[in-house]
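Progress against Task 2.4 (sequence-to-structure conversion) is shown through the following example record, which the project officer requested during the mid-term review.
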Amino acid sequence: MMNKALPYLLAVVVFAGFAYAEPGFDPSQHASEHLQSLVELLYSVAAPLAMGLFVFSGIVYSVGQAFDKATREKAKNWSMSIITGVSVGVLIMVFAPFAVGFILGMGAP
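Structure tokens generated for the chain above:
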């Protein structure tokens, strides 16, 4: 299933960069400013996406409770996997700038 979705996901990521580009964009000038604005865009998308996934996890769990025991177990496991994935993603998003700054020797951003 994931193999079928991967090309579409890559296309969205590539075309999102083109859609965000400004007219007269010259990548050789002010690349760090454009990279920073792209990071800010991703940060602004990440919070609603994480919240939506938490809500989706709750819906999966609650709908799964209406079925038999095996389906309840699958829904519970799937819901916990979603919550774990979102939590790890949020932690990475929060601590990545500090880790990169530390590795590069620049301290925290």
